[in-house]
Each structure stands twice: as structure tokens, then as C-alpha cells.
């Protein structure tokens, strides 16, 4: 009995000591989690500022920062709020980026050891990114100091720097992005980009995944033409990455543009300066309505309620090497059959839509590209409209064969397309044009080698909306085409109180359309009254 009592007392004592020690250890851990961020806060922040100041040629600032071990234990969480990067010199005052909050996850042991800090994850909240390239080719993101300057300031270290990326997660939320390149000229805009990318980027071979990449509005424009306009983008991808060979293989990928979803297969490799690729893509949906979503005017007008019929086939490929001297072989096939669409509550439909387009290039030279729109047919309000185009050698000497033929009764547009409140549209548009030949024939004034025959006639056009309550009238406009010029037989228009009459000729119109030449012409203009106030708009300022 006495032995049992002693053992029981001993066990009780041991248990008390165990809980006591465990409690002390727990308190020490909690205390360390609270104290360590403050203990290393100054060191980490000074390192951040030092790294920024000695490597970047820009004005960098942030409004607040924080450190924590609770958020992502056992790693440090570093937070920078109100981060901004503003350009200098040629980009003085231009904001390269503004970030509401930037969060980094740092490996705790790398901080304690004092070695290069290992960054495991990055989260960027509500960034505004504004990338700009001037006409002389200088870019506003080229803000790193020259290597010889950095070499003088940075001490030699085997760690390769004070920070090392060992990313396993990258997140960006609510990003607005602009890329404005004056050398092309090209502009790309993204509104509300959200993405989470995961993968062990420290491994030689890893799988990179993103399941939540979305863009509310995606716009791509070049030379004043928007090829994508406020397009909604969704991306779900799984990419096998060989980071040694810099090769990325598409395993399970879906890219959505509005209602058009494409599936990708193949790989892209960048072992050196060349880009090697073998990519195939095609549509996941085969309904005609999917391709209609890429027409901004249709997608932004009650697209969900749109009734549509018809089949769609869209696929393409790119295979070969891309560099400054060569392009890969590529192709694109678009086929639409028996297409129609009708808006809810409207009496008429757009019918008999048929499209057959092929774009091909065997590789090597971009000038070998052939664009063949053998069929583009649509019927609006019972009136057929047809377009065809065959374009060869587009870079060196465009060889064009094209035709446009049809009638559009603008008074019927309200029956198959929803106009805005207050809009009114009337008039008739008639086109009949055939052209064939090489641009060099026009440039060298060998007009007998180039065919251009046809006419364009607009009659009794009337357009009204809230901006033009008095309307814009075009009673008549007639253009007759020849290889040398388009003759303007008559133009009679009225805008508010102002009236215009004109005739004459327009030179270089075909070269202007297909070869980006300067548009020239001679016009005879007469008017009874031109009210400049209608063109300038009413001033809100009061004269003193």
C-alpha cells in the first residue's frame, strides 16, 4: 500500500512538473512570437530599405510596415503598406506602381541565422502597375542601377544577395495594369486582375498551378485598333516547369475570353534567347454564341439573354522557333455554319451567318503569311451582306484580292439590335467593290496591273442620340473607286445648324487601308453656315 501511494504521489509530482514545464515552454514560445518580430523588425526593415536604395534608380516609399510570427508561423510575415515607385529623369513624376499592401513570408531560421532571407510567398494587394515605353525605346521599369554602380556598393557574399526567392505561392488581388508601348504603338489594359499561383519554384522540375486567375476587363490595341476590348478573361492552368531547361509544358489548361473557351496543349521552351514552341489549341464549346461574345457591341448588350444557333469550329497551332529573324509555323482555322442570333424582346434576327477563315504560315518568314477569308456572309433584316479577302506577302508587297457587296437598311437595325434610349437611326448603306493586285503596282503608278472597281453609296442617313439631339444627317454620299483614287461625286450633310456640301477625289485610299500609306485628296467644300459652338461644345466657364 505504502509503495503504491508513493508511486501515485511520484506520478502526480511528475505530471505537475510536466504541465508546469509545458506551460513555461508554451509561454516562452508565445512570448518569442511576440518579441521576435520586434527584435528583428529594425534589422529587416533597414535591410529592405538598403536593398531598394542601392539597387533602384527611382523614388520608392511606403507608408507603414509590420512584422508578425502569428500570421504564418513558423515563418516571419513582412507587410508593407502604401508602397509606391515613382520614376525619375525621363519619367519624372510618372508612377510606375502603387501597391495598397505587399506581404512577404520569410523563413524564420534564415532570419535568425542572419543569412540571406528566404522569401517563401508573396502577396500583392490592390496594385496599380503602369508600364510605359517611349518612342526612343526607353522603358520606365528599367530602374535598376548599372551593374558597375551596384558592384561598388554591394559587398561580395556567397549568398548571392540579402534576399533569395524560394517561392511556393504567389498571389495578386485587385490589380489594374497598363502597358503603353509607343514604339509599336501598342496598349494593353487589365482591370481587376486576380490570381493565385502555387508550385515549388525551388525544385528543378515542378508543377505550377493557377485555378483562380480572372480579369474583369482585358483590352489589347495596336495602331489605334482594339483587337480585344474590355474582354472578360478566366484562366485555369497546370503547367509542368523544367526550370533548368526553362521549358514549360501545358498539361491541363483552359483559357476563357468572355464566353469563348480555348484548351491548350504542347510546350514553350526558352533555353537561351530563342523561343521554341509546339502549341495546339481549340475551342471547348462549339456553339456559334461563343464567338459572338468576342464582339464587344454584342457581348455588352444583354448577352446572357441572347438567343443563338449555329456551329463553331476554331483551332490553331504554332510550331517552331521564334527570334528576331524567324517566326514559327502557325495556323488558325475559323468556321461558322448556319449562325443566327436574336435579342430578347426584338422582332427580327440576324440570320444565315457563315464564316470560313484560314490563316497560315509555313514558318521562317512572316511575309509568308496567307490570310484567306473565303466566306463572310450575314443577313440583316433580310438584306445579305458579303465580304471576302485573300491577302499574301503582307510585309513586303501586299497582294490583295477582296470584295464587298451588300445592302444595310439602317432603319431596320432597331429590329435586331437594341439601341440606347434616345437613339434613332435611318438610312441606306450600299456597297459593291472588287479589288485585286499588288501594292507595288499602285506605288509605281502601274494602274493597269491593279483592279479596283465599284462604289459605296449612303443615302438619307439620320443619327440621333443624347449627344446629338438635333441629329446628324447625311442626305447623300457617293464614292466610285478606281485604282488611282476614289471620286466623291456628292456629299451633302447637316449637323445641327451647320451644313456641308462637298465633291472631289481621295487618293491613296486602297494603300491607306492595306499598306498604311498617307491619305491624300482634293475636296471642294461649301456651306451656308458652320456653327463652331456645336463642334467645340458649350463652355462651363463664365467670361470675366
Overall residue-averaged pLDDT value: 82
User: What is the strand tally?
Assistant: 24
Strand content: over 45%
The number of helical runs is 9
Query: Gyration radius, to the nearest Å?
Result: 33 Å
**Helix/strand-derived class?**
alpha+beta
The biggest beta sheet is recorded as: 24 strands, mixed
- Share of helix, binned: 10-25%
| Low-pLDDT sequence parts | 14-36, 149-161, 539-544
Which outline best applies?
globular
Polypeptide structure, described:
There is one protein chain. The chain has 544 residues and is α+β, with helices and mostly antiparallel strands. The chain has nine helices and 24 strands. It has a 24-stranded mixed beta sheet that branches. The longest helix has 54 residues. It is globular and about 80 Å long. The N and C termini lie far apart (111 Å). The C terminus is likely disordered.
Furnish the topology, listing elements before pairings.
Layout: H1 2-55, E1 59-61, E2 64-68, E3 75-86, E4 95-107, H2 108-113, E5 117-133, H3 147-153, E6 163-181, E7 186-198, E8 205-222, E9 225-242, E10 247-257, E11 260-269, E12 275-283, H4 288-292, H5 296-299, E13 307-322, E14 329-342, E15 350-361, E16 370-380, E17 383-392, E18 399-409, H6 413-416, E19 424-438, H7 439-443, E20 451-464, E21 472-481, E22 485-495, E23 498-507, H8 509-515, E24 520-526, H9 532-536
Amino acid at each position: 500500500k505504502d509503495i503504491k501511494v508513493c508511486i501515485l504521489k511520484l506520478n502526480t509530482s511528475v505530471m505537475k512538473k510536466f504541465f508546469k514545464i509545458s506551460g513555461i515552454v508554451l509561454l516562452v514560445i508565445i512570448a518569442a512570437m511576440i518579441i521576435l518580430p520586434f527584435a528583428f523588425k529594425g534589422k529587416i526593415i533597414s535591410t529592405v530599405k538598403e536593398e531598394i536604395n542601392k539597387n533602384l534608380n527611382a523614388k520608392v516609399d511606403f507608408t507603414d510596415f509590420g512584422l508578425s510570427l502569428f500570421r504564418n508561423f513558423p515563418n516571419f510575415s513582412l507587410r508593407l503598406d502604401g508602397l509606391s515607385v515613382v520614376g525619375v529623369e525621363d519619367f519624372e513624376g510618372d508612377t510606375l506602381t502603387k501597391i495598397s499592401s505587399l506581404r512577404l513570408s520569410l523563413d524564420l531560421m534564415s532570419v535568425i541565422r542572419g543569412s540571406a532571407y528566404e522569401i517563401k510567398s508573396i502577396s500583392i494587394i490592390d496594385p496599380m502597375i503602369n508600364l510605359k515605353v517611349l518612342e526612343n525605346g526607353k522603358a520606365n521599369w528599367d530602374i535598376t542601377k548599372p551593374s558597375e554602380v551596384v558592384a561598388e556598393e554591394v559587398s561580395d557574399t556567397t549568398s548571392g544577395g540579402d534576399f533569395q526567392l524560394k517561392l511556393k505561392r504567389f498571389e495578386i488581388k485587385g490589380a489594374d495594369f497598363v502597358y503603353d508601348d509607343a514604339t509599336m504603338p501598342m496598349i494593353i489594359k487589365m482591370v481587376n486582375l486576380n490570381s493565385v499561383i502555387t508550385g515549388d519554384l525551388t525544385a528543378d522540375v515542378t508543377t505550377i498551378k493557377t485555378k483562380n486567375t480572372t480579369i474583369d476587363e482585358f483590352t489589347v490595341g495596336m495602331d489605334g485598333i482594339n483587337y480585344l476590348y474590355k474582354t472578360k478573361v478566366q484562366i485555369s492552368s497546370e503547367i509542368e516547369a523544367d526550370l533548368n531547361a526553362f521549358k514549360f509544358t501545358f498539361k491541363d489548361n483552359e483559357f476563357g475570353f468572355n464566353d469563348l473557351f480555348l484548351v491548350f496543349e504542347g510546350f514553350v521552351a526558352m533555353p537561351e534567347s530563342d523561343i521554341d514552341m509546339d502549341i495546339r489549341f481549340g475551342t471547348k464549346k462549339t456553339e456559334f454564341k461563343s464567338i459572338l461574345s468576342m464582339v464587344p457591341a454584342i457581348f455588352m448588350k444583354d448577352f446572357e439573354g441572347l438567343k443563338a444557333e449555329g456551329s463553331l469550329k476554331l483551332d490553331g497551332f504554332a510550331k517552331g522557333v521564334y527570334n528576331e529573324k524567324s517566326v514559327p509555323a502557325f495556323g488558325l482555322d475559323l468556321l461558322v455554319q448556319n449562325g443566327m442570333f436574336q435579342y430578347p424582346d426584338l422582332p427580327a434576327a440576324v440570320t444565315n451567318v457563315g464564316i470560313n477563315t484560314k490563316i497560315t504560315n509555313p514558318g521562317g518568314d512572316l511575309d509568308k503569311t496567307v490570310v484567306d477569308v473565303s466566306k463572310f456572309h450575314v443577313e440583316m433584316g433580310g438584306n445579305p451582306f458579303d465580304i471576302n479577302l485573300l491577302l499574301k506577302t503582307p510585309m513586303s508587297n501586299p497582294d490583295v484580292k477582296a470584295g464587298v457587296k451588300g445592302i444595310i437598311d439602317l432603319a431596320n437595325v432597331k429590329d435586331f439590335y437594341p439601341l440606347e434610349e434616345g437613339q434613332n437611326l435611318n438610312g441606306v448603306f450600299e456597297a459593291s467593290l472588287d479589288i485585286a493586285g499588288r501594292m507595288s503596282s499602285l506605288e509605281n503608278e502601274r494602274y493597269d496591273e491593279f483592279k479596283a472597281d465599284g462604289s459605296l453609296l449612303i443615302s438619307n442617313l439620320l443619327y440621333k442620340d443624347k449627344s446629338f439631339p438635333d441629329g446628324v444627317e447625311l442626305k447623300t454620299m457617293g464614292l466610285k473607286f478606281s485604282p488611282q483614287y476614289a471620286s466623291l461625286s456628292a456629299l451633302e450633310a447637316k449637323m445641327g445648324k451647320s451644313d456641308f456640301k462637298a465633291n472631289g477625289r481621295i487618293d491613296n485610299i486602297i494603300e491607306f487601308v492595306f499598306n498604311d500609306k498617307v491619305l491624300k485628296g482634293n475636296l471642294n467644300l461649301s456651306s451656308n453656315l458652320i456653327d463652331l459652338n456645336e463642334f467645340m461644345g458649350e463652355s462651363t466657364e463664365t467670361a470675366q
